[in-house]
Amino acid sequence: GVDTALLRESLEARIRATGAEPPEGKLVTNIGVLGRDSVPEDIAGVVSFLVSENASMITGQSISVNGGAYFD
Question: Distance of CA 16 to CAs 7, 12, 13, 29, 67, Å?
Fold first, then answer.
């Protein structure tokens, strides 16, 4: 998956807050729903579209670029 300092800090904060570290592989569920991990280009494609004229009528939306993965 895409690993960033912000993601690591968020996950570490969650572990500190709950006092429980999830078993390996249980933190992110369905990571392979599309058969591959995410890459920076996945985000870049969405950002590129959103800053283009094609997205001029899109306002106030949340767009999940997660390949179907979710935090359990």
Answer: 14, 6, 5, 20, 27
- One-letter amino acid for residue 22 of the chain: P
Is the whole model's pTM more than 0.70, yes or no? Answer: no
Q: In total, how many domains does the chain have?
A: 1
Contact at 8 Å (CB) between 34 and 67? yes
Q: Residue 52: what pLDDT? A: 97
CATH number of the domain to which 53 belongs: 1.10.8
R_g over Cα of the chain: 15
The whole domain housing 18 covers: 5-71
Worst-scoring range by mean pLDDT, 15-24, 37-46, 54-63?
A: 15-24
